Request: fold
Amino acid sequence: MDFSWSSEQLAFKQDIVDFATKNLNVDTAARDLNCEFPFELWKKCADFGILSMSVASQYNHSKQDTEFMTAMLAMEALGYGCRDNGLTFALNAQMWTVQLPILHVGNEQQKQKYLPAMCRGEIISAHAMTEPEAGSDAYSMQTTATPCDGGYLLNGKKCLVSLAPIADLILVYASTDLSLGNWGITAFLIEKGTQGLEQSAQQTKMGLRTVPIGELTFKNCFVSEQNILGTVGSGVGVSQSFLDWERCCILASQLGAMERQLDECLAFARKRKQFGKSIGKFQSVANRVVEMRLRLETSRLLLYKVAWLKGQGQSAMLESALLKLHLSESFMESSIDAIRIHGGRGYLTEYEIERDLRDAVGGTLYAGTSDIQRNIVAGILGL
Ligand SMILES: Cc1cc2nc3c(=O)[nH]c(=O)nc-3n(C[C@H](O)[C@H](O)[C@H](O)COP(=O)(O)OP(=O)(O)OC[C@H]3O[C@@H](n4cnc5c(N)ncnc54)[C@H](O)[C@@H]3O)c2cc1C
Reply:
């Protein structure tokens, strides 16, 4: 494995850190408090080219494709520079769970219609899989797509869908034949305003509060045959085609956030004095910083390994499950350490330390809970 970066890649990384630090840390605490999605910052990210990184150059008007390791490094840089973990989560969600499947399995008309506008930040999209009775067991979904003249009628409900309340485009999974189990699941693209589609208001949540989350209800919602993504019955394949990429890049942004968190804790441990010396001189505090560094380094190695395997065109199912499990749990642990290091200030909202903990909990739940990642690893190990 070769994890060395070229000078161009490192310069690109620094450009993104500078862009994010300068432009994206606007009113984050207030937006978190009020659960406000930053439309303007989304557009700024699009203009900078962030959303284009998961899409081939012919659909985003850039000169060349972004190679995957570079995209992952870019998402890490974004997480380091941008203190709004909700914004980085939302960008990653669109890039890897909607844009990438459209790029990989969409037909030319779908690619032309949606990808350029998504890259420009003009279309916000959601990926709708979870249902009230089908969470971890996602493929037991009960939303149906019944064939009718020229298309399908969708009926059912999706929940816990990021960006659902404001999405212009929804990638949704439904069964064209429940008796076929996984083989009946099909992916559809549905536009906002389609008759029979209801997008709920946002639901308040613990963390990642700048990304709205909500429900989608389908009541005899007509979808034309042209809006099938891939082929009838290929929905499970569509949903699994991007899992490793999604894990890599969402987690890359979390890794960046962990590095920023560590830098801030180090600076605070050096500056804050009690009993006549810097608190970092007390072994209890220093040990916490060391544990944070250890989690950062081990998470980084796992992340880069998965990205490297994907870059080589190899499968990374085991490694990406280990990565999801380790990095998301590490971010949560380190976020608790960061609060302890900052003492009472760490608990106050205005210091923007406690928010990382609330955001980090979400990472242990979405895209497969930690328990599910353990199950995947155990299964691959033959248990
Ligand atoms: C912030 C956030 C964003 C999300 N965004 C989206 C999105 O954009 N689109 C979307 O479709 N979904 C999204 N989700 C939903 C997410 O994918 C589900 O919450 C997740 O898959 C778990 O499903 P569940 O909540 O129904 O929990 P359940 O599956 O009911 O699980 C409840 C508990 O039981 C455990 N459990 C369940 N089955 C097993 C098992 N076999 N072995 C061991 N333990 C088990 C779980 O680990 C958990 O602790 C999001 C969730 C969150 C928190």
User: Anything to note?
Assistant: The mean pLDDT is 95. Residues 93, 127-130, 135-136, 160-162, 208, 213, 362, 365-366, 369, 371-372, 375 surround flavin-adenine dinucleotide (CB under 6 Å). Strands lie at 125-128, 144-148, 151-162, 169-175, 185-191, 197-199, 213-224, 228-229, 273-274, 277-278.
